[in-house]
Amino acid sequence: DRKPDSGGIAVIGLGRFGARLTDSLNALNYQVLAIDRDPQKVQKWSARVDQVAQADSTDEDALRQLGVADLNRVVVAIGASVEASVLTVLALVELGVPQIWARATSVQHSKILAAVGAQHVIFPEAEAGERLAHLIVTRLLDFVELGDAFAIAKLRVPEPLVGQAMSETRLLDRYGIRLIGLKRSTEQRFRYVTDGVELSRDDILIIEGTIEQVQGFASLS
Ligand code: ADP
Hints:
Layout: E1 9-12, H1 16-27, E2 32-36, H2 39-46, E3 51-54, H3 60-65, E4 73-76, H4 82-95, E5 99-103, H5 107-116, E6 120-122, H6 124-137, E7 142-147, E8 150-156, H7 166-169, H8 171-175, E9 178-183, E10 204-210, H9 211-218
Helix pairs in contact: 4-5
Bound molecules: adenosine-5'-diphosphate.
């Protein structure tokens, strides 16, 4: 059963990134119109995706004929060709698509995409690289940057805090850290933390703070 997607989604460019995105949207039960100019890609995908069309996405009329002008969200997943990616975003702006997500492969590319009118610019290589750096150099188990220098992270209880009650830790005063949730090793879900809860070595925490505060908290020893 497909979800009633408010206005529909298209993914343009079925390279590695666009293909994974399309698969993930399908797994979430969203129907996707997938577009690529390469007939072999279209052939390969026609068995897996409900709607797949062959078209040059820099061609505004071709997109209009496919009904792209009526869609609410379109992702331009073309990476290698900056020209094709920029011209595609321009065509989508001309068609009046309300939410254009575009993939950049360099900082300059991301600036051009924003300038021509993409509302959301994503830079997967840069984002994955930055995130990995945080995971490698700290003891963080997971890390998500929220923008404006803030982040949410998952980590084990830092050694100095093991055995302390939450009321003693004064995380916000001392470390600028807000505790969002805690999970005992025997539990499956994170839960709210009340003052009386004592931190154990095997607990997993979800915290929020500036990137600097999160890094500092994670390296307490
Ligand atoms: P990845 O790094 O994710 O593999 P690529 O940039 O190599 O991404 O792949 C981009 C995809 O976009 C390719 O399948 C290519 O055929 C498609 N593509 C490139 N230009 C156009 C265009 N003008 N119209 C439609 N599809 C295009």
